[in-house]
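Forgive a beginner's question, but might I ask you for the amino acids of a protein and the tokens describing how it folds?
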Amino acid sequence: MTDKIIITCAITGSIHTPTMSPHLPVTAAEITGQSVGAAEAGAAILHLHARNPETGQPSASAKDFMAFLPEIKAGCDAVLNLTTGGSAVMTLDQRLEGPLAAEPEMCSLNMGTMNFALYPLASRYDSWQHEWEKPFLENSDDLVFKNTPRDIAQVLVSMGQERGARFEFECYDVSHLYMLRHFADRGLVKAPYFIQFVFGVLGGIGADPENLQHMKRMADKLFGEDYLFSVLAAGRQQIPFATMAAGMGGHVRVGLEDNLFIGRGALARSNAEQVAKIRRIVEELGRTVATPDEARAMLGLKGADGTAF
């Protein structure tokens, strides 16, 4: 088990909507400010989605990404990790517009097609800031988040081989580990593999401790010494699962993309607040928080100078 632990912070995502929290960053200035704050609190990697600055609706346009990427880069030295998942309602070409233009050091990659059900959230609110929010959530009861082998191969080639990005492999189920092994066997990905175990999304594996242990066992079997794992859990299991991951030698992800709260019934006022909380916990467990440059060395990244922003 390495002493160093990488904290990733997922700043805004595409799941939560503006009605759910006044602290969810939407504009370029808000995303920039919260990103720099999270880095100062200890996040080595910032996982970034873009949003329409007027409506808060998920966006993957190059224009919306470029409105904040140079500003974040100027404000901190964290690794900027762009989503290629965008939103489940987007086509793959839409999802890739921003990442293709930005040529980041790192980007996420969803390792399988799945249900991505957000509709239970729609019943929790009586009124909405924007007209798009409620149908966006309700219609996820008939939504397939498409990540076929052809889609995955396209991302690996266009972002990895052609632009030099390395990946946060988001695995929402054990089957996604086997898909990653398949692409490793095809020679399209190279070790070390940075695998994000994702728990608690309705459609993926549940947030049960037994599942974390099983995912770790299967990753050990499939990848041996050639991988690092990180853990995120949606909602109230965020901090408990991150704590377990730290104790198991893994890395952690927090942020308002995955959970809007800092404690029972209390909204997190910023991403930095969650980063500071998990930093305190992992340091009390005896782990040392990795700097951005240490994370770059651990993951074999090309460096911030190799990006297009």
